[in-house]
Amino acid sequence: MSHPVSDEINRSGSHASGTADCQVCAAIAAMVRGGGLRIGSARLPWAGRLPPIHDRREVRSRQTILRPGETLEGVPVICDGWAARVARLSDGRRQILSFLLPGDLVSASAVFASSVNFYVESITAVTHANFIREEFQAKLLGEPKNIKALMGICVAEQEEADRLVADLGRRRAEERLARLFLHLMERLKMRDMVQDHAFALPLRQSHMADATGLTPVHVNRVLGTLRDDGIIELSGGTLRIANLLKLQRLADVN
Questions:
Q1: What counts of helices (H) and strands (E) characterise the chain?
Q2: Could you give the CA distance from residue 91 to residue 6 in angstroms, rounded to a whole number?
Q3: CB 53 within 8 A of CB 15
Q4: What is the pTM of this model?
């Protein structure tokens, strides 16, 4: 599947003040006030004003936001919508490394590196922004608590990569999907986006397949089993975990 390049993204331009009250990216400020910037399940608490924002961009669903080796204009963060970090093979096959949710930094490495070694692709319509890297680094390095939190985020990012390796290498299909759903619910809970074990899930079966190393046909079969067993309900882009205990047991969660 081809992807239009990020040059087609609407650019809102830079904003002079770059404060937490800046209308250019109020969504980021809201996420920070709600508990900090995040990578996966780890968070980077942030006190006071945000560093300046270089620009904000809006992109439609199913677009390429970043490419491996592409020069980053700043430290990218997702303001709104769902995206994914993706590894692509030469024949077009892909592995979704992680899903990116509102308030997520694209990667801890992007705080210090001017490029990444993976694709970032939008799943839904996405708004994302770039913090000015020098200002972002200065804010982090000027506060010992921020440095410690960033180290925690780096560790959490590595732990998530290790979890993916173990899941893909050793776990059954049912376990992989169960762990994916629980992991997403945990992250969405941190954003107050879960009610009664139900949350918006804008993923196609192809996304679930690429995130778990399965085929879409196999994903469809497992989803049917989970439905029939009364463990999940999936309809209209909403997933409800009907039996959390059974899903946790299936996922081998301690």
A1: 7, 13
A2: 21
A3: yes
A4: 0.82
